[in-house]
What does this fold into?
Amino acid sequence: MTIAGALGRLAVRGVDTALAALERVRRERANPPRRARLERFGAIVQLTVPRALVFVDRALARRVVAAGRAAADPPIWAQPETAIGDAPLSAPLEAHLQLTNRCDAGCRGCYTGASPEGARGEWGLAEWTRAIDELADAGVFHVALGGGESAVLPWLGELADHARRRGIVPNLTTSGLAGLDRLLAIAGRFGQINVSLDGLGATYARVRGFDGFARADAAIRALRRVKREVGINVVVTRDNFAELDGLFAYAAQRRLSEVELLRFKPAGRGARAYAELRCSDAQHRAFLPAVLAAARRHAVRVVVDCSYTPMLAHHRPDRALLAELAVYGCTGGDFLVGAKPGGQLTACSFAAPPPVASDAARPRITELRSYWDAPDAFGAFRRWRDAREPCASCEYHALCRGGCKVVSAHVTGELAAPDPECPRVVDRAAARSDRVHLRVLDSR
Amino acid sequence: MTCYSRGVRRGRILAIKWGMNPNSSSLGVDVTFLLVGATVLAAVTPVIGALLRWRRPATLEPAAAPAAPPERVEPA
It folds into this structure.
């Protein structure tokens, strides 16, 4: 790439970012988002330009948060000041709401097992509106709306409006395969919209099991015409790993705001396709250098999902830098929560709802605040400190928290087991296996 | 992260989570800064700190949205 080409691309990106910021300021003047929330360590303050959640200690919170300037400290600061991660947050940063499990696409790796019929007992607008109220009262900043295919819901725009009115920024993931016309009319109500795109051309079909690339691409172009904060979500599989650079090039060509890379999870129909689609160990080890090189080459922002933290830690980046970027592994039941189409509260979208309580009722998202501080809330998701080797001695464990529990549960049968795809865990298993072989040889 | 102490403790930014996560299945983290490293982040953090101080103190509740303008009534 020539220097002029690179500068040109950066200039285009700069212009897009500046115009997006202007639009955001205008939009959020009408519906101001929540600006701050107190925490044991201090506070979390939301910025609109640039878009960021800023974690500050108590001393800075006293200066920049109105409640922190009062003569007496707020009750949440009655106990000694902690560090981020020492205790669960006072509420999640974001909630992932699976508004429906209806979707006609039938992707073979779908983590929710979505179908044209959807799930039994799916909530409607009234129930989700109550859920938004509960999340707003708890202090949640953002919601990520998904499915199934939420874009087909006739009340999606109304729900997004309600979230805005309550100070929550709604964001959306869509396949782009259905409900596009309706979505184009309400796209401005969302903070960020990402379209799922697991490959270009034939790779899309190989990963998803049907040829939907042209429709997804058309949806991306149409959304980008009406909104600047549009990106793509890419579930990384062994089939599309070699094409990551091409996906970044595609994002740059379409002037998308980000590429979000997601690890393949063995949930829903994805559990059956896991062995075939999951990345190899070599691909996991090559993941970080590959995506950073692609992001640099095409000047596109790169976002990775929480389950990739073990693969980041494998390259031993500066731990302080990871902490400053809020790069954490499994933060289910802490930084985030999920809700199934019938409102059942989960630690994350891939996890099953928590065990039935003594009153034989599973907690709903509308009961978030009462469940949040319950004894053993979210079970193993919050007990990540009780780690076994090789996590216990890993210097990244406080950040990584043992990797993806959903992968652990599928492969080992235990939520609390170390992530079996973490390179450190793979290396330890290989070393133990070698030792067993040697012992067998010695005994001959 | 950057400490703004000069005599009186002015407080610290502990972490910055950039962007918004539209993905409804997991928590997305912007790792673009891993490209440029701690130095650039160390340069950006004081700017964010200045932005926080420059604004009016943040309230804990979202500010009330302005009421919708009354519908224009055409004279009969």
About this structure: Chain B touches chain A through 48 residues (CB under 8 Å). The CA atoms of residues 52 and 58 of chain B lie 9 Å apart. Chain B is about 30% helix and 10% strand.
